[in-house]
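To assess whether the prediction recovers the assembly geometry, we first specified each molecular entity separately, as shown.
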Amino acid sequence: EDKVVQSPLSLVVHEGDTVTLNCSYEVTNFRSLLWYKQEKKAPTFLFMLTSSGIEKKSGRLSSILDKKELSSILNITATQTGDSAIYLCAVEERTYKYIFGTGTRLKVLA
Amino acid sequence: GAVVSQHPSWVICKSGTSVKIECRSLDFQATTMFWYRQFPKQSLMLMATSNEGSKATYEQGVEKDKFLINHASLTLSTLTVTSAHPEDSSFYICSARPGDEKLFFGSGTQLSVL
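The predicted structure of the complete assembly is given in tokenized form:
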């Protein structure tokens, strides 16, 4: 059965800390891996990764995919209270279905 | 980015009634839309794939007679929770994608069944 697992499930840090969120997957027909941030309602898109080893960066956030290890990490440097959210990892299959991971709940304390 | 509109944002209903949730792609056509369900502190669970002009594809364990999906046009899909019960209370969220792009999500509907 296809699955996506994220770790840790939850994390509490202080402002200014750097965090690394993990996502591992077992998906038969991998197409891409995506990271979303969910604060209160709709998840908002962060990154889409299709190739191994190529880092994607947006401000203080960055992400990279390792297709050999079937995993991805999302890094957030110099965290701020506004980074507090649930971070969702999703793997897109070749049938265009998205399988979401368990999510990592991040809380950044002032 | 593309815009997906979902309505209503929240609904409270009595047990036994039916509730309809609408999902619209505002600036693109979507032959396929996806309906997810999210319980508190849990991830998104795919319920069904809505296909324009044909029957929806339901995930294993999702009752098709309970969650009726209609995708009558290229910009509108509806999810009707029939004879709702308290255990159906949840956050329902739809998504769609323009062409080969990533998924864009609606703002979600919080359903509370009394």
